[in-house]
Structure to design on (1385 residues):
């Protein structure tokens, strides 16, 4: 029991937690959180309010999508903001976005429960008499459709073209690509190979997105076909998982996943360690690595494979988010590397 | 660095303002980290009160001054192959850079562990730092030097107003002015140019009310970096971070801002080739995306100690490991025990650091806070709401304030305008004035523009005021009681607001089951289970992370203040280890982030929380603790002992009612009379008439003090009628608050016994003061063994000690103080707890008196007499003063304690130990051969003659007891001579502030050594006349 804020109503979702201490605007607008109720470990949330969205080349600079994507929000305390560029409080914003939230929760207690029992389904409700039933499970639903664009969207005016297979791409990824001088073409997640290749891209990005990658055989097939074209491919988060499946590997549900901005990944070849942003509930483990691919990055703490690189084809994937947003920018060089491969190809 | 077998670790020396116990913490961790690798450690640190100078920490210990001169001697003897200079503050870093520049490190083939010297130099030099930042594209505040008025105005126009003008090469850093317009700048330029020796001013953008943020970066030799914490200063730019209230993690930055500075901080670390830990400070505009890098400290610092305690990430330990060549992912996170150190801690709580000032102890001191540090200690509070942490922190300061609201300032008749003016004047403890201003009707905007604190935090402070006032009007129902506790209100505050007794609030609270939860600090916000028990309590939680089942709870000394410092932390750690030996595991309760006792691997159970009676009882009840040890808790332990015992808590050692006999002047005096032990005549006076009657009887001078205090707060020697009248005006006498007046014995000696008893037998160490009686024992130079006290005197002291130990039933440590006149010891004080001098006396004789205390309590001592412990070598302890930091304060000694720390040395002779000990307390140094020394004041004649014989040019002050045949200077001449660098040392005595204020002040400001007692002056002069030679030996060599 806590105190409701944001919108009134009842929502169901998989309850997951993040240990990021700020960056709530980015987290709540991240389409990968579709179908999930997000618990913040840090007790004070909403301190700097919510800014006016800023756009450039049709890409959002200070949010990861146009809307709040989570099903619900759980915090210990929702604060009164004070910030020069804030236009609304967290409460006001969630009300506008029709997302219910709850404060006054011992989020540490809740997180320990999730840590011990694994992610679970939950209901957030502002009116106890509103009967909600847990008649679905997060793992059984394909959410990508609801966050993927209906039609093609183009950003930037660069000489080289990239296609983003958009399963709910974070605008942070688009920004990294556009700022490197590419024309970025976003196509719906369910596009055919021909549709993906329609603009004759020099490279393809399989984006992040919500949900269980094992429910996306179509996308996996698309990946396989494009890989055969020997086009440079960058897979990020869901894109990494799709790559693993397409190349003959496996993806498994994790107990409670990685959702944080403080996670180390070690580059296998160099031993270098980077602090990165993570948001995944599924993962590739050592046993799951497809043949012809090798581990690019690994989490040194639990061994989860955090990046793959193909032995022959120009395919690179990261389970973490090199675009950060929210989080450290230490791995943004991955976009440089990909850009170089695209341009030299 | 595989070939490191022996490392020289440089400490930070005595505690001074801006260089305190945080370096005991960092040095101890580094020593542990090196030892784990099988590396032999050699420590140079004369700070005898520290934990790191205890036996097991370093393999070899040199208690010598921390200067390159002495370091070279140690290097010649020890031939280390590496040196660690990042764990002893600026002191160690400076010595390291000097050794590097002088070619000593190269000559002896010594590698620098961690950041290389050239990187350190890039960080430390203002100019090189600016150049480096510009080269890597990090913004720095625009500034330029100007040599003419036109140039200065042009620079200011380019930079934009307001500007800050600094006088270049003006000693002491003063002479900086803020100008908001061209006219203002023009007006101050003339004076500024005249103050600069090189006729130059520096014009810099003035960052009025900008935010100050600090990032703590860790980087390994492979180039991996992590940011362990971002600390947000609540006070704006312009207030030294050591003077600021600081919160971790930062609260008002969005992701863009946070990451922008985080990336810059890592670039700063790269640009200085950091290996280990550094702190990068930024200024940020509160109303745009502008920011600047301000500076970096390429070493463990006060902030890194705070970051370490706030996050649980053992920074110094990891920095030490990285300096040996490990990479971040190779070092295990000892808190989780399963994850690596290459991550950034996530906090599911807030940590607030709050400074403590003791400026009230100093006459004439400038009280406004600015770019230099004046605070003496700090606390850190943990909570799951800002309000809770903030109110806890205020109580931890132990300044008599019950929280943000409801204290003496809050309830005073101060007006809103006065409160706002106090904020504008940057008086210490701004948050109390902010609350007062809100209470008197000020708006958020009024307060924000007065103090520059972010409105985000001010909203919350105002919320506390509103809640308190509502509670005062309407009382509380159950939901509101819970809300009050979640906002950090103490039972005492609630009692006061609602007009019921504090114990009743507790009763109601317990009946309703309103109790705090115990939460763990795990560095990962609950994502992984923690293997350590670093705990705090909060009302913003529904579940205990752990259920401790405790035996002994040891109360730490809390905030450091004048009179309570690292020596008590040594006591806490010693007692914990002794408990482990005699009783089994014990828990620690403390809230001082500078300490070793709050380190992650010291106690198995650490409660980092308030040490109020309310919270101690919460912990005792929740943790099932059977006993509480208050005897190493300094003033804090004293204050809570009796209330705890009254509420049924069992105390370790001497019973509370026995403590009461020693603390209560009346009872103690009667006891001394009944035992036939002598004491100075005294009276407890609660009215002016009683004061007069006593003074008429015994005559001046008299010593005046309140009861129940440590460090002699408010203690004064009164010499005449005028001083007496002045005092009576200052303190309100009442039966509830009487004062103690005693006959002050002039020209007497002072001596002490640090001892341990089991109520039957006792052991102890006799300490003799070098200075005359009347100087607070904490400010006195002390020697072991005694030099001038005769056998009969010592026998009398020992007899008194054993009689009192048996009569009172002392179980544990005690400290008995005497004043000796004509060989006759008179008892002036008995303290039944660890004393300030115990680390010194313990280390001098080689017996840990705190461990012995535990043994006496648990097993008893196999003695039925008093056994004196004697040292094999001469041991001398010297006080460390921080006069230069305390702008305006008049340097003088008296019954009120003013020193901030201490150093000690062992020697082959008294002169050897004395000189080395004195030289260990900066800015003391041996005057240059044939240099000029200024000696004046009562009783300094002998010192003047000795100094003349030693070959110095002795000058004296005309009109102030001319010393010998010395040249007499006028005050102005003396002050000018000091300013021009023509005086090597000032020796004086007593208090002559009407006459020589500017002499002492100028000497303090320019770091000219000051000797303020005639007897110490005489002994030092004697030591210098003997040749001024000192021995450099490992401490164990002295007892062979």
């Amino acid at each position: 029991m806590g105190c409701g804020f944001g919108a009134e109503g009842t929502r169901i979702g998989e309850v997951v937690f993040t240990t990021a201490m700020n960056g709530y605007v980015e987290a709540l607008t991240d389409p990968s959180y579709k179908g999930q109720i997000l618990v913040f470990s840090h007790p004070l949330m909403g301190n700097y309010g919510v800014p006016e969205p800023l756009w450039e080349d049709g890409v959002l600079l200070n949010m990861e999508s146009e809307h709040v994507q989570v099903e619900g929000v759980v915090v210990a305390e929702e604060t009164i903001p004070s910030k020069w560029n804030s236009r609304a409080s967290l409460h006001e914003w969630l009300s506008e976005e029709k997302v219910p939230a709850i404060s006054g929760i011992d989020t540490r207690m809740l997180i320990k429960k999730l840590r011990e029992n694994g992610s679970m389904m939950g209901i957030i409700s502002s009116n106890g008499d509103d009967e909600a039933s847990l008649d679905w499970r997060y793992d059984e639903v394909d959410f990508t459709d609801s966050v993927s664009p209906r039609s093609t969207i183009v950003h930037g005016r660069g000489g080289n073209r990239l296609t983003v297979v958009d399963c709910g791409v974070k605008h942070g990824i688009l920004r990294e690509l556009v700022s490197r001088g590419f024309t970025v073409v976003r196509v719906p997640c369910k596009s055919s190979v021909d549709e993906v290749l329609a603009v004759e891209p020099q490279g393809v990005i399989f984006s992040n997105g919500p949900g269980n990658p094992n429910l996306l055989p179509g996308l996996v097939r698309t990946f396989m076909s494009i890989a055969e074209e020997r086009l440079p491919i960058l897979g990020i988060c869901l894109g990494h998982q799709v790559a693993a499946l397409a190349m003959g590997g496996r993806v498994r549900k994790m107990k409670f996943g990685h959702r944080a901005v403080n996670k180390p990944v070690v580059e296998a070849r160099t031993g270098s360690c980077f602090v990165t942003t993570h948001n995944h509930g599924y993962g590739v483990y050592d046993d799951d690595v497809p043949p012809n691919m090798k581990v690019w990055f690994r989490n040194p703490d639990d061994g989860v494979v955090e990046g793959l690189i193909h032995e022959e084809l120009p395919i690179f994937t990261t389970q973490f988010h090199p675009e950060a947003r929210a989080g450290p920018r230490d791995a943004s060089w991955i976009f440089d590397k990909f850009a170089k491969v695209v341009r030299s190809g | 660095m595989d070939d490191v077998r022996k490392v020289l670790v440089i400490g930070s020396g005595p505690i001074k303002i801006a260089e305190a116990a945080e370096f005991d913490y960092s040095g101890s961790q580094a020593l542990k980290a090196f030892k784990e690798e099988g590396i032999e450690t050699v420590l140079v640190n004369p700070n005898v009160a520290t934990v790191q100078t205890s036996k097991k920490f370093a393999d070899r210990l040199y208690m010598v001054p921390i200067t390159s001169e002495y370091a070279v001697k140690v290097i010649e003897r020890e031939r280390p192959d590496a040196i660690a200079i990042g764990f002893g503050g600026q002191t160690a870093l400076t010595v390291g850079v000097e050794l590097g520049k002088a070619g000593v490190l190269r000559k002896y083939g010594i590698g620098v562990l961690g950041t290389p010297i050239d990187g350190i130099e890039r960080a430390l030099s203002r100019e090189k730092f600016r150049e480096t930042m510009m080269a890597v594209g990090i913004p720095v505040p625009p500034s330029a030097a100007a040599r003419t008025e036109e140039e200065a105005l042009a620079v200011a126009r380019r930079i934009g107003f307001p500007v800050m003008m600094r006088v270049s090469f003006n000693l002491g850093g003063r002479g900086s002015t803020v100008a908001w317009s061209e006219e203002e700048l023009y007006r101050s330029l003339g004076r500024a140019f005249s103050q600069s020796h090189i006729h130059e001013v520096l014009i810099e953008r003035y960052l009025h009310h900008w935010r100050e943020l600090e990032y703590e970066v860790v980087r390994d030799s492979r180039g991996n970096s992590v940011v362990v914490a971002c600390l947000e200063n609540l006070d704006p730019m312009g207030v030294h971070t050591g003077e600021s209230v600081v919160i971790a993690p930062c609260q008002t930055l969005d992701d863009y801002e946070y990451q922008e500075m985080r990336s810059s901080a890592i670039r700063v670390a790269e640009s200085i080739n950091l290996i280990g830990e550094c702190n990068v400070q930024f200024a940020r505009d509160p109303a745009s995306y502008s920011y600047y890098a301000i500076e970096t400290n390429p070493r463990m610092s006060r902030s890194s100690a705070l970051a370490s305690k706030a996050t649980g990430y053992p920074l110094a330990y990891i920095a030490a490991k990285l300096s040996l060549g490990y990479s971040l992912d190779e070092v295990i996170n000892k808190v989780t025990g399963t994850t690596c150190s290459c991550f950034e801690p996530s906090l599911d709580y807030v940590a607030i650091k709050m400074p403590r000032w003791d400026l009230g102890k100093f006459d004439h001191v400038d009280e406004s806070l600015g770019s230099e540090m004046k605070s003496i200690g700090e606390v850190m509070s943990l909570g799951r709401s800002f309000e809770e942490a903030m109110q806890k922190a205020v109580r931890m300061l132990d300044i008599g304030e019950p929280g943000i609201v409801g204290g003496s300032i809050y309830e005073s008749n101060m007006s809103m305008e006065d409160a706002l003016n106090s904020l504008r004047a940057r008086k210490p403890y701004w948050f109390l004035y902010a609350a007062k201003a809100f209470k008197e009707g000020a708006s958020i905007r009024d307060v924000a523009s007065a103090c520059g604190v972010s409105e985000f935090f001010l909203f919350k402070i105002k919320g506390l005021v509103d809640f308190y006032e509502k509670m005062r009007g309407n009382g509380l129902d159950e939901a509101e009681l819970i809300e009050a506790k979640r906002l950090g209100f103490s039972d005492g505050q609630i009692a006061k607001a609602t007009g019921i007794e504090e114990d009743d609030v507790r009763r109601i609270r317990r009946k309703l089951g309103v109790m705090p939860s115990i939460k763990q600090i795990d560095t990962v916000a609950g994502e992984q289970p923690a293997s350590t028990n670093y705990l705090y309590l909060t009302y913003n939680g529904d579940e205990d992370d752990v259920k401790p089942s405790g035996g002994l709870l040891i109360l730490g000394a809390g905030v450091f203040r004048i009179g309570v410092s690292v020596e008590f932390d040594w006591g806490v750690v010693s007692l914990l280890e002794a408990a482990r030996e005699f009783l089994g595991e014990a828990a620690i309760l403390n809230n001082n982030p500078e300490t070793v006792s709050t380190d992650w691997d010291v106690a198995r159970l650490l409660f980092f929380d308030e040490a109020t009676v309310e919270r101690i009882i919460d912990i005792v009840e929740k943790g099932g603790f059977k006993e509480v040890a208050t005897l190493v808790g300094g003033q804090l332990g004293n204050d809570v002992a009796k209330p705890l015992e009254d509420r049924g808590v069992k105390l370790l050692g001497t019973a509370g009612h026995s403590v009461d006999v020693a603390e209560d002047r009346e009872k103690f005096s009667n006891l001394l009379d009944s035992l036939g032990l002598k004491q100075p005549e005294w009276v407890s006076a609660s009215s002016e008439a009683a004061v007069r009657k006593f003074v008429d009887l015994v005559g001046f001078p008299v010593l005046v003090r309140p009861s129940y205090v440590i460090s002699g707060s408010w203690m004064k020697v009164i010499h005449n009628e005028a001083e007496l009248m002045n005092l009576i005006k200052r303190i309100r006498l009442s039966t509830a608050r009487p004062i103690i007046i005693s006959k002050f014995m002039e020209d007497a000696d002072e001596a002490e016994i640090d001892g341990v008893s089991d109520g039957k037998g006792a052991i102890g160490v006799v300490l003799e003061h070098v200075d005359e009686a009347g100087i607070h024992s904490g400010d006195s130079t002390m020697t072991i063994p005694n030099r001038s006290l005769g056998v009969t005197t010592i026998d009398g002291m020992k007899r008194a000690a054993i009689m009192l130990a048996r009569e009172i039933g002392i179980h544990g440590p005690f400290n008995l103080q005497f004043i000796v006149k004509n060989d006759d010891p008179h008892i002036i004080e008995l303290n039944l707890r660890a004393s300030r001098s115990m680390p010194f006396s313990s280390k001098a004789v080689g017996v840990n008196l705190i461990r012995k205390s535990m043994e006496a309590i648990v097993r008893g001592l196999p003695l039925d007499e008093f056994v004196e412990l004697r040292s094999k070598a001469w041991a001398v302890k010297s006080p460390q003063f921080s006069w230069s930091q305390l702008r305006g304060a008049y340097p003088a000694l008296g019954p009120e304690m003013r020193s901030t720390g201490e150093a000690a040395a062992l020697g082959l002779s008294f002169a050897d130990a004395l000189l080395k000990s004195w030289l260990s307390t900066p800015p003391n140094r041996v005057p240059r051969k044939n240099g000029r020394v200024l000696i004046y004041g009562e009783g300094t004649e002998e010192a003047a003659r000795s100094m003349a014989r030693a070959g110095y040019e002795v000058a004296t002050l005309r009109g102030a007891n001319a010393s010998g045949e010395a040249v007499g200077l006028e005050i102005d001449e003396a002050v000018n001579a000091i300013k021009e660098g023509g005086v090597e040392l000032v020796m004086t005595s007593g208090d002559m502030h009407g006459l020589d204020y500017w002499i002492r002040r100028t000497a303090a400001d320019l770091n000219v050594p000051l000797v303020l007692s005639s007897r110490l002056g005489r002994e030092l002069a004697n030591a210098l006349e003997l040749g001024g030679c000192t021995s450099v030996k490992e401490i164990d060599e002295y007892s062979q």
Remarks:
- Chain A has a mean pLDDT of 96.
- The CA atoms of residues 192 and 338 of chain A lie 23 Å apart.
